Every structure is written in structure tokens, then in C-alpha cells.
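Researcher: Go.
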Amino acid sequence: MLFLSRLVTRFFQRTPLWKQLLIVSILSTLICTKTVISHYTNIRRHRAAAGVPVSFLRTVRRSLIASYTSLFDFVSTFQLIVTDPQVVLRVLQYQYQSIQGLERDVSYEKFQFGRGLGGGHRSRQCLDILDNHLACGGKEQDASVVILFVHGGAWGFGDKNIYTSMLLDLQRELELRFNEKRIIVAACNYRLYPMADMLVMVEDVAAAVRLLHYRYGCQISLVGHSAGSHLAISLLCYESMCHEQNAKLSLQSLIKGYILQSGVYDIGLHYAHETSRGVQEYSPMKPAALGMKRFSHVSPVNHVKPVGSPQLPPSSEEKSDEDVEDTSSIPIRLLHSDEDLVVPSAQSKEMLNCLQSAGYKNVKLTHLQGGHDLPVMCFLDPHFGGEKVEGAVRGMMKKRERDARRTKEQLISAIEDVYEGG
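Model: Structure:
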């Protein structure tokens, strides 16, 4: 590394400026070209797999937009480094630090079915599992609480490694609530656009649930944020949305409950909101849904069937009454802030009405305070852990800190409610 650093330094010292600019321009062009070609290949592959018509010019356009949004994500990360370096340092610290009880990058590929098969990308088809019970000297016992966190990111961004500190804080809080119980907290990656479309992402999350159930033999509670909430609740109507007809793959018996924060449940409604903000062409949502014509199909609000009715689409074989699972009492907790400008709270209100109309009896909507990112930032930002906030922003931060503390408490209470009051 030292040799490489000296080599680069010597190059910049001895090479004229015009040559430096030329070489940097050539390298940037090659990297951008490679990115566009990679995106083009992925988009053609997953659209063809979904049976959606593939247009050369439209695919090239989508590839260029995907490359631009990747650059925008990089710039946003750099901006976060400048504006809030403590959050970034904390994320990096936990990402590369050896943590007792944390098993990283556990693959769930062998638990995938349907369109989840093929087109693999191992860094995206895995999850981190935190189990401090045995690591801290606890006696061997069955897991009592298993939480799977599904991150957000507009179906095109995000990574489980960002949320390692959240897993640690979440498990610490749950250990205070559930005395002498073994608690497993996990966070999963899933393939993102342009590597996959929304239904493949749903298949990935389903595979992560199957893996955790296979390992620990108990039901899994799903905690989602933003796009992650969309993918999590899609498992409630998995058979209808993914056209999965194999009764052996039923997911409802594996799931304890849903805790959904700031989620998107009506893609068409959210596209109208993105259009009002002028970001509809840069957001990965529309191409990840495989176009506007499929907005209805990938919206969970359109797949929630009345309790007791088969979830399979009309074209498939009907299940017998014995095969239909009663999901009316499954706990579903919706958490959303009226101050959310990224995903309006109308999404959760519509989902609440949809679930109640379908006969789900154990559904609650909790109103949060603060913005869209607060449900996760309250775990990531060290300011929200009780440390003193100094400087000119103290007044503004005090309100955000109060909102963050309350948001964290509401999330923990929702999880506790699923297990004890659900």
C-alpha cells in the first residue's frame, strides 16, 4: 500500500497537468462505460425473465439513468461524510470490527424458489445474524425472539452493513424487555435494481425468512423501513403477488408479525408523489416495478385478500378450505410520521384501511414524529444515544433528539406488542 501511494504521488509530481486530466478522463470514461454495460445486461436479463418486452433504446436509456443515480448515491454518501461524519465513522467502525456473536454474510441462496433462482450475486443474497446469547455465556436454549430487518433505499440503494450498529442497539433494548430469552436480530441484503426487479427482491426476503426459520425453528418477525416495508408486507400476499402455487413454500406459518416503518404500499400513489417532487425519472422505483403498467401488480394494497380466501391468482388452481391459513390475528404494526416528506403517511393510512377491510383484526397505526429517516437514524446517530449536543444547531437538534428517543421507544414497544400483546 505504501509503495502504491508513493507511485501515485510520483506520477502526479512528474506528469504535466494536461496528461493527468487526459488519463483521469480516459479512466472515468472506461469506468462509466463498464457501469452502463453492466446495467444494460442486468436490465435486459430480469425484464426478459419477467416476460416483459425489451426495447433496445429504452434499455440503454434506463442503463444511463441507473448509472447517473449510482453516481448520485455516491455524491450523497460523500455529503453525509462532510455533514455528519460521526454517523459514517460509527458505521465503518462496526462494519470492519470483529463483533462477538455476529455472523456475517450468511447465504440464503439454497432457500430460494421461483424467480429468485438464477442471476445470483452473493454479496446481495445474504444476511448478518446477531446472537449474543451463546457468545455471552448463556446456556443453550431455543430462540424466543427472532427479528429480521429489511432495509430501505428506493429498491436501488442500501446495504445491511450500514445497520450493524442498529442491530446491536436493537438487541440491547430487546434484552431489557425480554428477560432471560434468547434474542436473534438479523439484517438481510437483497438484489437491487438494476440487478433485479421488485418481485425478485420479494423472493430474496422470503428466502431469508426460510433460512432463519430453518436455523432456529420459530416464527420470524419482520421489521421494514421504507422500501423494506413494501418488501416485508408483500410476504403477506406472497402467493398472489409472486404467483407461487406450491403449498410447501407457504410463508405465513413462518411469520410471527410485521412492524412496518414509513412504508410504500401503493406504487401508483407514490409515483404521483415522486412526480410532484420532480424525481420520478431518477428514482429506481418505476423501472424496478418493470414499468407503469405493472404498478398495480407490485402494490401490496391490491393483493390483500379477505381473510380466509385463497391468495392464489384466479388463473391458478384453487386451494381447498383446509389449505387456507387463517391470518386474521397476525399482528401488523404500521408506524409513520405525518412530517414524512419522502413517503407521505397516506400510504400507511391506505394500508391500514385495506387490511381492516379484509378482516385483519390485529392491525395498528402509530404516528411517529420527525422525518422519513428518523426510524433508522435514531439507532445510527450517536447524538441520539444520550450524548450532549453542542454548537449552533443545539436548538434544532434537541427537538430531533426528543423525536428520535420517542421513535425508538415506539419501535421497541411495537416489537414487544407483537410478541406479548399481539
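Model: The first strand starts at residue 102 and ends at 107.
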